[in-house]
Fold each of these.
Amino acid sequence: MICENKPLISIALCTYNGEKYIEKQLDSLVSQSYTPIEIVISDDSSTDGTWNILEKYAAVYPFIKLFKSRINLGFTKNFEQAISFCNGDFIALSDQDDIWDTDKLSILYNELGDSDLFYHDSNFIDENDNPILG
């Protein structure tokens, strides 16, 4: 990975019983064209196979950092925890069922300019990856 002295972008990802979608999501995150990145994952005491999947990815990708709550924190507190573990100059938030385009971070970084906050539109898909229009 050639970084060209670009700032580190942290991806704060929260999970809770997300095994159905987490592999597709992680595949999209580790494939980002922008570098350097770190992926900080806060698992909110999942009881399904989510944690095992996360450990599998973290063993392959050293820029993935895992944290598991001993008690269920809920959506907001789990994101607060994930953000608190981020080391990046910028932080991108990701829900556990998001699938990112490969160039998402590159495009956002190039458009950021002097802004402190950036928002973008989303495309929604159903459980079979079909676009939801409307």
Note: The longest strand covers residues 9-15.
Amino acid sequence: MSDLARDPGCIQPPGFDLLYEQGPCLVVAKPGGLATQGPPGIDSLEVRVKEFLRTRDRKTGRVYLGVPHRLDRPVSGVMVLARHVRAARRLAEQFQARTVLKKYWAIVEGTVSPPAGTWTDYLRKIPDAAQVEVVSTEHPEARQAVLSYRVRGTDGRTSWLEIDLETGRMHQIRLQAASRLHPIVGDAQYGAELPFGPATDDFRRRWIALHARSLEFRHPMTREVVRQVAPLPPAWRPWHLVDAQP
């Protein structure tokens, strides 16, 4: 049981959900539209978590927070963070070794067929752009991207996918879905036509229907297996494909 779970009176911090805390290991749920990290003076998950820890623990000096992985700004869901360097390094090693199990939920445009399968592509980052593209295996900058999926529901206009991510490339799920003519709902950057989430004129605050649903890893100090699930944000409620899901 986590330290957090032992405290029934624990107050949730503003701006994110604290799902688990044990020793130097934190698991949080990032809201969509919020950067994982950013330059000084820019709001981000890292800034919010540090400020929460500083206030809660009454720290006066520098607060360390290790960020061993990231979620794209428009993506919501579960993330693991570390409160000291050794824990951060051990978590980063698990991500590099691909031993962390990552499950995502997505709503995409159209009806995905077959109802389950594996997508394998080769991607490259477009120079001087926050975007990736599919390239041939012979391209010198090609990096393999692999995921498996199953369709959990469809209404003819959209499909609800459960995705197991085997590699962790930039914008991987977003591009692999879009390249098959099934862009993630709300992801105008990769061709989506249907909107998602709170309406805003600030494109940086826009959400897409991609949610890091669960994360399974070994605690960096105890080596105990930890699995945490991030509840769906309110923006998912209008999508009746996932009506009954917490």
Note: The first strand starts at residue 17 and ends at 22.
Amino acid sequence: MPGAAACHVERCYEYPIGVGPGGSRLRVAIDTPDRANVFELDLLDPSGSQVASQSNTGQSQFDMEVFAPHPAAGVWTVRVVPQYVTDASFRLRAKLEAAPVPAGAKTMLLPDLQVTPPYEFTFVAPANPANAYAPDAVNPPLSAAGVAPFSCTPDETLGIGLTLEPSQTHVTRCLRFTTGPRDAGPGPLEIDYNPAAARLGIEAPGPAFQRVYYSDGTSFLRPAGQFQFHAVHGHYHYLNFLKFQLFHVGAAHELTAAGSGTKLGLCPADELFADWTVFNQQETKTFTPNCGYDPGQASLGLNVGWGDVYRWQRPGQYVDFSGDGDGYYLLQITVNAAGLVMTAHTGDNVGYAYIHVVGDHVSILERGQGTSPWDAHKKVFTDQ
């Protein structure tokens, strides 16, 4: 039910915004910690006419943004319509932007790849591990009456599958978690691939290329690793992009290797703002839908200011916890681990979570961007 009609049967939230003259663009965004909650975000001009609207109908977005070019001066209205919501919260932000400043000297616009620090730890395997899409509700935890028989999916236990690094060591206990990459740089992360030229990327990986943009709109391609088709998910993955490492933390904070992950590939999507306080998110550029097939050059990636979130239900979202016991652990996530993508910065591509494990219970003591709680340059996170 659209906003105006829905507000007659349920509570909507309206917020006035005073807009001054001369603005180039008005932008308003909403953020919610649980993407399973469906909100509609509407923007109404001073006459009450709706000029922009976004809705998380696919239950895949943590953040949404609406825009009004050359807004008239006056009192605008932001309307938030709960469409399918349970015990939810949200926050809003708005900005009236000035006209863009003309570009100066030609500069390279590179991505700045960062990590969403890991959270949502569990030892419960997903009930439908083959599912690759939102909503998360179609892939609930595999448990009954509080009993969870498995923490690993069958392919994870065997160490097989195109998204997993082959392993002769059969994993028996998986510590699962949610994480993902972010692009906080001035340029997009764009990976181009050509399925037709690589025999569809089914039998073997094909070459992948990073498209690098300049401030004048021109671009060039450079080699950036490989891509491969993932039959279970029905789309293509960019390989060797994420690295998961688990360490046991001693009494003096010394680190001992305790496990690693085997996830090799991913298909990113714009789901979360890289930084809520920075207004650099671009209106979504169309990559090849769902990292799919294109008869010519296809592309996948992240737009400027956006990040992706891979929740614990997805295949490969774990580190091997076999043989590990109770104690304190540090999980490190590295994006662009192989250095295949040219980036604006190279020292901010690691995220961490410092956790305490007792039985099947995992407590997060601290999570952030950086290598550990003892990193002098860390950035601590209290939200997603």
Note: The chain has two helices and 25 strands.
